[in-house]
Design brief:
mainly beta, Methylamine Dehydrogenase, Chain H, five-stranded antiparallel β-sheet, four-stranded antiparallel β-sheet, 29 strands, about 45% strand
Amino acid sequence: MKKLGLSLLVPLCAAASIAWLASAGAKPPALQVIATSDTGSMPKAVTVSPDGKHLVVTNFGFWKTRNLYWYDPATLKKIDQTDFNDKDGNAVESVFSPDSKTLYVSNFNGNKIEVVDVATRKVTRSVDVGLRPKITILSKDGTKMMVANWDSYSATIYDTTNFKQLYKLKANEHPRGIAITNSGKAYIAGFEGDELDIYDGPDLSNHKKVHACKHVRHMTLSPDEKTLYLSCYYNGQLGAWDVATDKMKKLVQIGQEPKSSAVSSDGRWVFIANFGQPDHGTVSVVDTSDWTQRFVKVPKMDQGCGLSLAPDQKTVWVTGWTSRTVHAIDVSPLGVAATPPVASAPAPSTEAKPVVAPTTEKAKTPATKL
């Protein structure tokens, strides 16, 4: 792995705090951990609802029961749990509907999307999708759902009103990172390669493969949708991808094996959970105004994995895969304004013939690099 050349780790002033690493220029504002809570086995994702009232952690290591833990976003007190009641079922990723009333959860081993009613925190419907579904995202208006199918060489798009499959898009081996713009341009990253599959056009019939970086794990669009941020897992980098030209415009060295990420509402700050040693207890923060990167140390966290940013831009939550923890970080000193209301346009809804990916006969053994 490459050595980090942009910042140096300095000792913490106190065990309960996060200290920014010094870098050239003005001293950045201090950030602090304000709450820590235990989770279940292998906490994969942490997701906050658009209204900021609900926080959920997916427990990948629990099957059938205790699949989701629900927390008070303000205190990180556990308030409830959701059981799939599926003997083969485990939770990997989740996404809230825009109205915060529904949670969609990928059931990795069950090959399904579980639809959860937020009011009751119960599963109301199970939708069969591809093999080993992972990241799940929604169009801005919530009417389309896109799922990355880890063992199906595909990403599938569904109508959330009836869960009819609209498209099946080819991808490289082990698709995980996905993104879709407000205009309907779709990106899929096969984790085992270094290319992005890009689909565009009113029926997603325009397809191209473009080199990006090695092992793209997560993708997050900037608020203005001009930049797609890539977690480049193998080389410990954050890639800034130009959506207009589909070319890499910047690679920033961050922590080793970067996982989930989030972008602030003003587009300035990118937060990334670091999984690999020696950075496994840190979150990277990249300032896109000058591309400087700083580590923050999260006490008691081991192998940062899931990450979510509050709609009011005051808190970042991050999970520790092996420490079985979830942490709340106060990022209000950055002074970012709350997320503005979204004026959305639906993703493509035409029922043109889908682009069909190769089928696989049976799922592979679950991978550990999740």
